[in-house]
Specification:
Elements lengths: L1 H8 L2 E5 L7 E2 L10 E2 L2 E6 L10 E7 L2 E6 L8 H5 L6 E8 L12 E16 L2 E10 L6 E3 L1
Antiparallel strand pairs: 1-2, 1-7, 3-6, 4-5, 6-9, 7-8, 8-9, 8-10
């Protein structure tokens, strides 16, 4: 089962524009099983406040993206160099998705949007130093689907 999951995950490419003009592919540093793409609206249940059967107040959109990357200082593709000094800054995050675990070829769906990197912690996991990264939408839209 783990082989299948790993195979499907290899069908996703992650690009971060590192505040430059070129989006850089940092997929090689991604730790399998660590990519999480959120897209939900929080809500408050008000059913007990009114006589309606179901009633709620919509809250703010929660569309954070989290991932873990191995330390990698290879120029233009290493997570350490690409993500290094971008905490607290806005950039374009792109996640390309390939069909059924195959590598994206440009015709499949992708998620892209302006995101604020709010976390880039360095932790030790399994004797290796890793980046724990979190992005939040910098505007209302967050990541949007396109091809």
């Amino acid at each position: 089962m783990a082989v299948g999951k790993h195979h499907i995950e290899k069908g996703a490419y992650i690009f971060w524009d590192d505040l430059g003009t070129t989006a850089l592919n940092i997929t090689a540093s991604l730790i399998p099983g660590s990519l999480n793409i959120g897209d939900e609206f929080e809500s408050v249940d008000l059913t007990g406040v009114t006589e309606e059967l179901v009633n709620y107040l919509a809250g703010h959109r929660n569309a954070d993206v989290t991932a873990r990357f191995h330390m990698n200082d290879v120029a233009t593709i290493g997570a350490t160099l690409v993500l290094g000094n971008t905490t607290g800054k806005v950039g374009t995050l792109t996640i390309q998705i390939g069909d059924a675990g195959t590598a994206p070829d440009g015709s499949e769906p992708e998620l892209e949007g302006e995101m604020l990197m709010v976390k880039n912690d360095y932790t030790v996991d399994g004797g290796k130093i890793v980046h724990d990264v979190q992005w939040m939408p910098s505007g209302v839209a967050g990541l949007t689907w396109s091809t």
